[in-house]
């Protein structure tokens, strides 16, 4: 067995803005109810960023926590990848704003846009730097202010999303090239641009020049979610050389409790092994996986050496999964 470089998660952090928006709060805005939202989605509450909080502010809070957990300082960071659909500005990238706000030295910083799948995509991109020795201390952040994209007259979407950020520090570690290695072990990334109409934002700099609002055919997205995610999970496990049954913790994108249950059923996963935060966070898009991971680490469920499987699906459609040993 030869020595290989792996990208290991050495620190995790999460941040939620202060304002809690309940289902009852939303029932005052659109024709909905706490009962409907809980039954159809599992969501109880979500957080909303303050008007003066940009996505980079949420990202910086999560990143500070992740760096502290890794025992690293902003001065050591040489790569920042932010997965976001809701950047502060059309440009520059949120990642360079985070770099400035954290006080990181000149290095590499850019955003990845794959909507709810953004964090899995971003991990894969960062792995390309870290596991080739091109970055020694990488911040991979999922950060979103999805509430800014809501049409507050559309009850089919505005009840589903929330704001937040999660971050991990990735560092190179020596491995033996086996599944016992610590670090990122396998990926499956997918996109199908023919499904754009199912979930998109109806604005952008090169079309109407506006930010736009999120539009979704929820039941159609739902139909694709369980099948697509299950396929990606199976493919990522094969890429890593593990079986799904070996996984200690599933850390999924948190869109809807029924999607999480559907994937678990289809793959024969024990639901006790699924970290779920959708009840308290709602769908925070690219932030939801690192936020769920931060939750699992903070409450002591996820421990060093555990085998994790992350998965997501979102606008594009994009979807994917990642296997890592924590
Ligand atoms: N309150 C009350 N009624 C509602 C609400 C609401 N908030 N939203 C929709 N309804 C109504 C609809 O108008 C419809 O009424 P009708 O039968 O009189 O026309 C009825 O509920 C059923 O609508 P459906 O869209 O068929 O309901 P469904 O059971 O599919 O649930 C939901 C809708 C929750 C959006 C679900 O489809 C879903 O979660 N889809 C996944 C979408 C998603 O999470 N996308 C995010 C990004 S992609 C991803 O992360 C997987």
In words, what does this structure look like?
The protein has helices at residues 23-27, 34-41, 55-70, 94-102, 118-130, 155-158, 218-240, 257-267, 278-281, 288-298, and strands spanning 4-15, 19-22, 45-48, 79-83, 108-112, 138-145, 163-175, 183-191, 199-201, 214-216, 249-252, 307-314, 318-325. The protein is of the alpha/beta class. The protein has ten helices and 13 strands. The longest helix has 23 residues, at 218-240. It has two domains: 4-175, Thiolase/Chalcone synthase (Peroxisomal Thiolase, Chain A, domain 1, 3-Layer(aba) Sandwich), CATH 3.40.47.10; 183-325, Thiolase/Chalcone synthase (Peroxisomal Thiolase, Chain A, domain 1). Bound molecules: acetyl coenzyme *A (ACO).
* Uncertain segments: none
Mean pLDDT over all positions: 97
Total strands: 13
Percent helix range: 25-40%
**In percent, how much strand structure appears in the residues?**
25-35%
CATH architecture of the largest domain: 3-Layer(aba) Sandwich
Indicate how many domains the architecture comprises.
2
The CATH class label of the largest domain is Alpha Beta
**Terminal Cα span:** 21 Å
Radius of gyration (CA) equals 18 Å
Please report the number of helical segments: 10
Write the layout of secondary structure elements.
Elements: E1 4-15, E2 19-22, H1 23-27, H2 34-41, E3 45-48, H3 55-70, E4 79-83, H4 94-102, E5 108-112, H5 118-130, E6 138-145, H6 155-158, E7 163-175, E8 183-191, E9 199-201, E10 214-216, H7 218-240, E11 249-252, H8 257-267, H9 278-281, H10 288-298, E12 307-314, E13 318-325
Parallel strand pairs: 4-5, 4-6, 11-12
Antiparallel strand pairs: 1-7, 2-3, 6-7, 8-13, 9-10, 12-13
Bound molecules: acetyl coenzyme *A.
Acetyl coenzyme *A is lined by residues 32, 36-37, 40-41, 116, 155-156, 159-160, 199, 216, 218-219, 221-222, 225, 253, 255-256, 259, 283, 313-314.
């Amino acid at each position: 067995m030869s020595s290989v470089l792996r990208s290991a998660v050495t620190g995790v952090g999460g941040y939620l803005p202060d304002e809690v928006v309940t289902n009852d709060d939303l029932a005052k805005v659109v024709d909905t109810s706490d009962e409907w939202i809980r039954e159809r989605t599992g969501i109880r509450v979500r957080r909303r960023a303050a008007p003066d909080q940009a996505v980079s502010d949420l990202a910086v809070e999560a990143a500070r926590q992740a760096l502290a957990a890794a025992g690293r300082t902003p001065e050591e960071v040489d790569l920042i990848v932010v997965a976001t659909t809701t950047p502060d500005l059309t440009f520059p990238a949120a990642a360079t704003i985070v770099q400035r706000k954290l006080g990181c030295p000149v290095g590499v910083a850019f955003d990845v846009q794959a909507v709810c799948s953004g964090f899995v995509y971003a991990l894969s991109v960062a792995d390309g730097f870290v596991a080739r020795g091109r970055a020694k201390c990488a911040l991979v952040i999922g950060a979103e202010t999805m509430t800014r994209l809501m049409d507050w007259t559309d009850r089919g979407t505005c009840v589903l999303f929330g704001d937040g950020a999660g971050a991990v520090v990735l560092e190179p570690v020596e491995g033996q090239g086996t599944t016992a290695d610590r670090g990122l072990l396998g990926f499956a990334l997918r996109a199908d641009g023919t499904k754009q109409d199912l979930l998109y934002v109806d604005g952008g700099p090169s079309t109407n020049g506006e930010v736009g609002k999120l539009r979704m055919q929820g039941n159609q997205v739902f139909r694709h979610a369980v099948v697509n995610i299950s396929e990606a999970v199976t493919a990522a496990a094969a890429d890593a050389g593990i079986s799904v049954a070996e996984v200690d913790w599933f850390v999924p994108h948190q869109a809807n409790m029924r999607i999480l249950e559907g994937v678990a059923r289809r793959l024969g996963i024990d639901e006790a092994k699924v970290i779920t935060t959708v009840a308290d966070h709602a769908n925070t898009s690219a932030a939801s996986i690192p936020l769920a991971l931060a939750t699992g680490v903070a409450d002591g469920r996820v421990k060093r050496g555990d085998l994790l499987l992350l998965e997501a699906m979102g606008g594009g459609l994009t979807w994917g999964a990642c296997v890592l040993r924590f």
